[in-house]
Design brief:
Structural class: alpha/beta
Largest sheet: 8 strands, parallel, barrel
Shape: globular
Length: 314
Amino acid sequence: MRARRSCLAVPGSNPRFIEKSRGLATDEIFLDLEDAVAPDAKEAARKNVVGALREGGWTGRIVAVRVNDLTTRWTYRDVIEIVEGAGDRLDCVLLPKVADASHVVWLDTLLSQIERATGLPEGGIGIEAQIENAAGLVNVDAIAAASPRLEALVFGPADFMASIGMRTLVVGEQPPGYGEGDAYHYVLMRILMAARAHDLQAIDGPYLQIRDLDGLRGVAGRSAALGFDGKWVLHPGQVDVVNEVFSPSQRDYDHAEMILEAYEYHTTVEKRGAAMLGDEMIDEASRKMALVVAAKGRAAGLARTTVFVPPPSA
């Protein structure tokens, strides 16, 4: 699966922001037709997005478009115009406010029809499903299983907080009066479990205090520690922090690669299922944990600085 450490939201109605996004070191760029675009500007924004996709300039990054949610009058035209106009330049469609599996099935069906009609490879365009309300969280397992096109589940904190009546106006921060603990832990873990059960990535939502990089680091560190793959960013200044938080340290990456090499050597050459790497015992469970860290390090572009040296023969 491709890296999604940082996923940058760019208003589809703002050509200047779209142009600037081409030079940023994000793993994913998504052009937004939903919340970032005023109702009267949505039809014009579609044309901006098609033109931007045709122009390109995001080589090496995932390119997505967030359409409007399925309860609005814009969604079907969003999908048709974007995919017919620039489907060959599009990696994913991001569907917001997914409340049940039928939303994903609808988008999958429409994408297949457009792909067949336009000669695009069927199934080539992925889907990201955004969980933004109580119904979506309750139905998240069915949503995660709804389509082979699904690549990621995305948490949408602001709408979710409103959906459940959380008493705060600061997105992502702990609500006043909650006390010890993390008010978002259950939500994040619920999304993460559904994602992992279906081999999907899990992406945390944005942190709206764009100048508070220490706050961003703390909130991003929370979901990264659980195992999330990345986080939305709303401003260029947030990109480097999020990329760093969702990448393993050089030390952890080197150690993971060492475990993989050592385990391979001991199981194939010495025919042992468990062995020592320095003062650490490693086994099959160690290999599985190391695979996760190594994969994230490789996706982040890290390079090895250590090499495994087999022990001398007895």
